[in-house]
Write a structure and sequence with these properties.
about 400 residues; globular
Length: about 400
């Protein structure tokens, strides 16, 4: 057998390996002839050559470059472990001015703030500009502006009808236009997320806990108007939050005062949960879970702290965006059961991506607790990373 100069450069080890492989292949296929010739044939068939050269082709693209790029890796790496946890909370701040909000952002790089109460100083002029500028990751600025009994900027931008009133007096197209108008007013003040619309279906009287906050007791009508309101906010660049999964509209009780009980899960599927079907049709939204005990699902716990409730939202209803809690710091359905830092820890561990408390304060205490929970494994690191990716994607960071 004649050995070429090129084969010599390859080395005896490569030749021996090729010969062994050729021998095996020859035996399987019944190919006659010296093993070295079979080895040459195999090498020729498995080693692509550059056109016109006879030399092995060299790829100009490293194999790693073909893998999907992780758009979230860099912004996550730029945050400390504590700052990553801070991105998962939405904390209430003093609405009268920027001092408290600025302290939360500069001190902890908190991911979101909630502007509640009656004062409007933080929503006036350019008060939020310095607060948002202090955030390394875009800051979520949220308000509760549903219309009717639950409004935030009516003193600044006028009244918004209740959901039930909107359904009675306006078409879905008109509601979308109204929500877009309100969204533009909110966005001009620095608001990025509205904790609306209500997706609950409710026949309850206007003044009950949900009542006229619901668009309709008919799930199909409710869905049509929820879709319109959410689309209007999105038209204005404001993120909508659908609430209160899995359905507060037919529950007994008020979660501000105690833990309400809903109808059994099978009954919710036939009514309260219908607006959440094909949830991707709503576009880029968040979903707020209510403090609700669902027979057959949550086992006497609030849905906000129940892994089964988050699994229902993800697995049965296919939601891929951020799941948010209702207020963990000022509603007795939770506060009568567990203190705020532990409530935040349990909500995130159960599947929440954003933990909200409107009462303000205790941010450092909450983050201390979350750091300890990650270290102990009570809040798994993979759960933190999963939530952080959803939050950063929702913000348009990755």
């Amino acid at each position: 057998m004649t050995i070429s100069a090129r084969s010599t450069r390859t080395g005896l080890a490569t030749l021996a390996a090729g010969a062994l492989l050729a021998a095996v292949l020859s035996e399987w296929a019944g190919v006659a002839g010296p093993p070295s010739e079979a080895g040459t044939a195999v090498a020729a068939s498995t080693s692509p050559t550059a056109p016109g050269t006879g030399e092995p082709a060299t790829s100009s693209t490293p194999p790693s470059a073909t893998a999907p790029r992780d758009e979230c890796a860099e912004p996550i790496a730029a945050l400390s472990p504590r700052q990553r946890l801070a991105q998962l909370v939405v904390v209430g701040v003093d609405p009268s001015g920027p001092a408290a909000a600025l302290a939360a952002v500069t001190g902890e790089q908190v991911g979101g703030i909630f502007v509640g109460g009656e004062a409007t100083g933080l929503l006036s002029g350019d008060a939020l500009t310095a607060v948002r500028s202090a955030a390394r990751i875009p800051l979520t600025v949220s308000v509760d502006d549903e219309g009717g009994r639950v409004q935030r900027v009516e003193a600044l931008d006028g009244e918004l009808p209740s959901a039930r009133r909107m359904t009675a007096t306006r078409t879905p197209a008109e509601v979308r236009a109204l929500a877009a108008q309100r969204g533009r007013a909110l966005a001009a003040r620095g608001v990025t997320m509205n904790l609306a619309p209500i997706a609950d279906t409710s026949p309850q009287p206007d003044g009950s806990v949900i009542g006229d906050r619901s668009f309709s007791a008919d799930p199909a009508v409710a869905r049509e108007y929820v879709t319109a309101f959410a689309a209007g906010l999105q038209d204005a660049g404001v993120k909508p939050v659908l609430k209160h999964f899995p359905g507060h509209g037919n529950a007994t009780g008020d979660s501000h005062l105690a833990l309400p009980s809903t109808p059994p899960l099978d009954a919710l599927r036939r009514a309260d949960l219908l607006p959440y079907r094909d949830i991707g049709d709503y576009g880029d939204v968040a979903v707020m879970l209510g403090h609700l005990d669902v027979p057959g699902l949550t086992g006497g716990e609030p849905a906000t702290l129940s892994p089964a409730a988050y699994a229902l939202l993800r697995e049965e209803y296919g939601f891929t965006g951020p799941a948010m809690t209702d207020d963990l710091g000022a509603m007795k359905a939770v506060t009568d059961r567990v203190d705020l830092p532990l409530a935040v820890q349990r909500a995130l561990a159960a599947g929440a991506d954003l933990a909200l408390w409107s009462s303000g304060g205790r941010l450092g205490e909450v983050l201390d607790r979350l750091e300890q929970a990650v270290a102990s494994g009570d809040l798994p690191q993979e759960r933190v990373t999963e939530a952080l990716r959803r939050v950063l994607t929702f913000k348009g960071v990755c």
